[in-house]
Automatic annotation (TrEMBL):
GO cellular component, one term: plasma membrane
NCBIfam families according to UniProt: PRK11492.1
Keywords linked to the UniProt accession: Cell membrane, Membrane, Transmembrane, Transmembrane helix
Highest taxon, organism lineage: Bacteria
Stretches that traverse the bilayer: 6-24, 31-51, 57-80, 92-114, 126-146, 177-196
Protein localization: Cell membrane
Species: Breoghania corrubedonensis
Membrane topology listed for this record: Multi-pass membrane protein
Protein name: Hydrogenase-4 component E
């Protein structure tokens, strides 16, 4: 029981790190916060594997460490440092205070939904499951509430982390091939979006998606 309490408590760090990613004004700092969050997910996979007896989750933790903690932040750092200032303030729509309030409301709503779930694998992990779902919607919230292109890339990363943890809780014995597919998709998606973001900045000298209103063929 104490192990489940630890997992539920540790998952709360995901919301804190997600807000740090969203509210940071520097792209490099957001990449560091994302790496820290991904490391928390790696630790959660290890403890979930120990509690469920799932050897697959140990492999998941190894793959997630290579891709989420090392590779994806490295791609972000390599691409985003090419920008003149690496600022994430342009195109911002949602103030910091409203972002924090929105995150709290999302967590509350997700916990209300999860409280009715009766799956055996999630019986003792409903707080962690609620946070994983909230984390997905928090990433979506970041994409919708921010016009900054790089913020939207980070929003996608947050969505992917949330769905990843949800899958680990609900299907701890899923084969490693599933994890490889998720990790590969995340790496290539982030690489493509980072390249597009830097090219857009080089063309328009702006990261505000709201300014991309003209298509030229």
């Amino acid at each position: 029981m104490h192990e489940f309490l630890f997992i539920n408590g540790l998952s709360g760090l995901l919301i804190i790190t997600a807000l740090m990613v969203i509210l940071s004004k520097k792209a490099i700092n957001s990449a560091i916060y994302y790496a820290a969050q991904s490391f928390v997910i790696v630790v959660l996979f290890i403890f979930l594997g120990a509690q469920t007896g799932s050897g697959e989750l140990y492999l998941w933790s190894f793959t997630a460490f290579i891709t989420k903690v090392l590779l994806v932040p490295f791609i972000m750092y390599t691409m985003f440092r090419r920008l003149d200032d690496g600022e994430l303030g342009s195109g911002q729509v949602m103030p910091a205070a409203f972002s924090a309030i929105g995150a709290a409301l999302i967590v509350i709503l997700c916990y209300a939904v999860v409280s009715g779930v009766t799956l055996p694998s999630a019986e003792n992990l409903k707080p962690a499951l609620a946070i994983s779902l909230a984390h997905f919607f928090l990433g979506l919230f970041c994409i919708v509430a921010q016009r900054n292109i790089l913020k939207q890339v980070f929003g996608y990363c947050l969505m992917e982390n949330g769905s990843h943890l949800t899958l680990a809780i609900l299907a701890p014995n899923a084969p490693e091939l599933v994890e490889i597919g998720i990790a590969t998709d995340a790496v290539f998606a982030v690489a493509i979006m980072a390249v597009l973001g830097t090219r857009i900045f080089g063309k328009f000298n702006s990261l505000d998606a709201g300014k991309l209103t003209t298509l030229k063929g």
